[in-house]
Amino acid sequence: MDGYVVKVGGSLADILPDLVSVFKSCRMRLVIVPGGGAGADAVRLLDPDPDSAHWMAISAMEQYGHRIASLGIPPIDGIVPVSHPSVLLPYCLLRREDPLPHSWDVTSDTIAAWAAWRFSLPLIVLKSVDGIIADGRKVDIIASPLATDTVDYAFIPFILEHNVKAAVINGRRKRDLLHALSGDFSSGTYIPRRTEGL
C-alpha cells in the first residue's frame, strides 16, 4: 500500500506528539485530516444555524491541523500530490468545493472520508475506542449501513457509496496503529472495498 489518509480524532489531542512521531517515521504518503475536537464541541454548544455551524466546525478542524503542523508535519490546503506525511488544512478547500451537506450528520469523520475518496487513498480513522461500536459491541467488518454513534451519521453511507477502503482504529494503541499502517486492520473495524469481498 503506497499511502493512507489518516483522520486524527480530537480526543487524541493529548497524545499528538506520539502520533506525529509515528507518522514522521512512515516511509509512505500520509495525508493527515484533523478532527474538530474541543472547538467543534464548543460550536455545538453555541448552536448556530446549520451553515454557520458547518464552517465554524471546519475552522476548528483547521486550528487542530495547525497544531499538528506545529509538531513537524508540513501542511497542505488542497488535493495535491504528496510524497511524505502532510496535514490537510481543510477550510479553504471545502470553501472552494463545498461537497457535503451543512448538517451535524457530517463531521470531520465524513470530511476525512471525502478526502480519502478525492486522494484515491484508503482511510484510517483514529479514535479513542477500539473500532465502531454498535449494540454495545465492536463490529469487526462492515458491508452495509448500521446504527452507531462512534462515527457521524453520514460516514458509513459515504464510505460504502464511494467504495473507499476504510478502518476505524484505536489511536491510543501504538501497536494497533502500526499494524493498520502496514495494512492489518484486524484490531479495529474494517470496511473493505466492494471488490475485496468479505
From TrEMBL:
Record-given protein name: Uridylate kinase
Keyword vocabulary terms for this entry: Kinase, Transferase
Entry-linked InterPro entries: AceGlu_kinase-like_sf (IPR036393)
GO MF annotation list: kinase activity
